[in-house]
Amino acid sequence: MGAVCVVHAAKELENEMNKPRLLIVDDEQEVRKILRALLDDTFEVVLAESADVALEVLKTGKPFDLVLIDEKMPSVDGWQLLKALRELPDFETLPCVLITGIHDESVHRKALEAGFADSLGKPPDFETLCEHLIALLGEAEHSE
């Protein structure tokens, strides 16, 4: 029985290591919890409650494959965070998705022009969110 547990634990660790890494940046704890619960099976999810925390997390440790960024946060908003990221070496092309409470075509266009890979309304529905993130991962793989 012990050997089965070790094999199972090894498979779980392997699966975790193969998951794409996703950083979720949102000042609302409840939103972070919901997004983690929705995406934890597909992604290795890391949470940041502010732009400052996100920048620290991004600069240390393993690289991320995608970043979800809330548009409206205190002190540094999503637009400012993206600008700061694009000025750092190694983060010029990191796919970032804007999550916004008011999502329409003009916001989407503005997000793309600013350098976001995509934008989604808040809260995004699970299927749409997964479709967009998986598509972005595919695009990132093809551009490497």
Task: Give an overview of the whole structure.
With 144 residues, the chain is α/β, with parallel strands linked by helices. The protein has a single domain, classed as Rossmann fold (3-Layer(aba) Sandwich), CATH 3.40.50. It is built from 6 helices and 5 strands. Strand 3, helix 4 and strand 4 form a beta-alpha-beta unit. The protein is globular and about 35 Å long.
Summarize the topology:
Blueprint: H1 2-18, E1 21-25, H2 29-39, E2 44-48, H3 51-59, E3 66-70, H4 78-86, E4 96-100, H5 105-114, E5 118-121, H6 126-143
Parallel strand pairs: 1-2, 1-3, 3-4, 4-5
Helical percent range? 40-55%
CATH homologous superfamily title: Response regulator
Class of secondary structure makeup: alpha/beta
Overall structural domain count:
1
Q: Do you know the CATH architecture?
A: 3-Layer(aba) Sandwich
Largest sheet: 5 strands, parallel
Shape: globular
Order of strands across the biggest sheet? Answer: 2-1-3-4-5
Order of helices and strands: HEHEHEHEHEH
Uncertain stretches:
1-15
Percent of residues in beta strands? 15-25%
Taking all residues together, what is the mean pLDDT? 85
**Distance between the ends:** 43 Å
| Total beta strands | 5
CATH topology value: Rossmann fold
CATH class annotation: Alpha Beta
| Number of helices, counting only DSSP H or I runs of 4 residues or more | 6
Radius of gyration: 16 Å
Which labels suit this protein?
144 residues; alpha/beta; Rossmann fold; five-stranded parallel beta sheet; 6 helices; globular; disordered N terminus
